[in-house]
Amino acid sequence: MKKRIIMCIIASAMICGSLASCGDSVGTGSSKKTETTTAASTTEASTEAASEESTETAETTAAPESQAETSAVSDELIAEAAKVLNNLNAVDYIGGGSSVEVDESAVLNVDNKYPYTKVTDSRFSSVEEVKKYVTDAVCGSLLESRYKCIYEGEPAMFTDSDGSLWFLQGARGCGFSFNSDPVVSDVTEDSFTITAKFDDFGADSTMVVKAVKENGLWKASSFSVNGGEENRR
Fold it and tell me: Which of 76, 94, 124, 212 has the greatest number of C-beta atoms within 10 Å?
């Protein structure tokens, strides 16, 4: 009986020792491996995040300067384009016989067929001033084919007589009611193209204007409407 008890005690001790040894190996090994893997992943993630943050910071720092430069050029050209269109519109109104202040009670008949009215518009006191106003706004083929008649020719829209300036009024369709922002393209140092929409007597038309720099001023040198003939509506 004693022999059996002793054998059981020995067997029990051997089993417990074996289980304790296995438990230490699995638990400790697994824990170390997990910690090493987690640490490596955390390090890689931190490195990638730092790299991305650095790249984003560099791009953010560089972007404003580039955007500001592009915006400045674009704004300047759009502003110049708007001036070109406004000046062209004003000249076209004059060429159509309107938008000039006059005293309709004072009439000058030239050759008994051209009834001019006396100009009271503060912008103009002579044909030379009219010529400067027109040639500061338009040039090239547009001036020659469409607007030169404002200040010269037979009959010219303006004439000097008796120390006063006179204007040949009319009722011709004129002016461009632009209803969109100008779009600028084909930019060079001394020219660019403007595209804009306008109300063409109730219809929606597109005008393409060629602008050139002459004597330091941006001027309209030609236009086309809906791809039609140059300088004609």
Answer: 94
Q: What is the pLDDT of residues 77-128, one digit of tens each?
A: 999 999 999 999 999 999 999 999 999 999 999 988 899 999 999 999 999 9
pLDDT for 3-47, tens place per residue? 443 444 344 444 334 433 334 433 334 344 444 444 444 445 444
User: CA–CA distance from 119 to each of 30, 99, 103, 128, 164 (Å)?
Assistant: 102, 11, 6, 14, 8
